[in-house]
Amino acid sequence: DIVLTQTPLSSPVTLGQPASISCRSSQSLEHTNGNTYLSWLQQRPGQPPRLLIDKISNRFSGVPDRFSGGGAKTDFTLKISRVEPEDVGVYYCMQTTQFPHTFGQGTRLEIE
Amino acid sequence: EVQLVESGGGLVQPGRSLRLSCTGFGLIFENYAISWFRQAPGKGLEWVGFIRMKAYGGTTEYAASVKGRFTISRDDSNGIAYLQMSSLEPEDTAIYYCSREYDIFHRGYDPWGQGTLVIVSS
């Protein structure tokens, strides 16, 4: 199974400042079709997960443009350009390149 | 607005069975693959299993932790996907979510339902 490792596991940030989360995969997430199926999800307290980004950098409909994703092969990053109060929650990377789908452990974003 | 609504959770004794439903609203259900996920209390997300569209055979995939105990099926005429859980263990206690693979080109999952809580305890 593909193991996704997120760092940091907790990220205290100041409102208006940037934040960055890393997701490292135990093997390349590039599919034989050339696509890389790495998603980022946000889970606010008491809420179900919400898709932010898929295919590394495709921002999903309705997601603010302060969220961006990047990377390739085994190393991926989620960036928030300016943290807002509503960004508090846990962020997960997820790979859907192969079964079983797997998640990172989650990164808790907290406001300092 | 596309919505998925899970139901069927509750308290169940170890070794017993339970069936969860995932009902879709605002979408042509047969056009989407569906996954089930779970989240144990205070823990991270775990993928449970997947069912393809009938157009792709309607076949299923499962996590090793549930293979042989859980079965996913779908009733496209009623817009429902099911998660049949048997031989339940306390470790299966979790909120269970369903979500659709919104398109085969991106393989992202949206939306997610609110979840249904399953507690396995004597």
Description:
The complex is a heterodimer of chains A (112) and B (122). Chain A has no helices and eleven strands. Chain A is mostly beta strands and 112 residues long. In chain A, strands 2, 4, 5, 6, 9, 10 and 11 form a seven-stranded mixed beta sheet that branches. In chain A, strands 1-3-8-7 form a four-stranded antiparallel beta sheet, with no helix packed on it. In chain A, strand 7 and strand 8 form a beta hairpin. Chain A starts with a strand and ends with a strand. Chain B has strands at 3-7, 10-12, 18-25, 33-39, 45-51, 60-62, 70-75, 80-85, 94-101, 109-112, 116-120. Helices cover 0% and strands 51% of the residues of chain B. Chain B is an all-beta fold and 122 residues long. In chain B, a hairpin with an 8-residue loop joins strand 5 and strand 6 (60-62). At the A-B interface, strand 4, strand 5, strand 9 and strand 10 of A face strand 5, strand 9 and strand 10 of B.
Q: Compute the gyration radius of chain B: what is it?
A: 14 Å
Total beta strand runs of chain A: 11
Tell me how many strands of chain B there are: 11
Instruction: Write down the overall geometry of chain A.
Output: globular
Structural class of chain A: mainly beta
The largest contact between protein chains, plus residue counts on each side, is: A-B, 27 and 26 residues
Rounded to the nearest angstrom, the distance between the terminal CA atoms of chain A is: 36 Å
What Rg of chain A is obtained from the alpha carbons, in whole angstroms? 13 Å
Count the DSSP helices of chain B. Answer: 0
Coarse shape of chain B: globular
Task: Give the oligomer, counting copies of the same chain as homo and different chains as hetero.
Answer: heterodimer
| SSE succession of chain B | EEEEEEEEEEE
Mean pLDDT of chain B comes to 97
Low-pLDDT windows of residues of chain A: none
Mean pLDDT of chain A: 97
Residues in helix, % of chain A: under 10%
Query: In DSSP terms, counting alpha (H) and pi (I) runs of 4 or more, how many helices of chain A?
Result: 0
Q: What string, H for helix and E for strand, traces the elements of chain A in order?
A: EEEEEEEEEEE
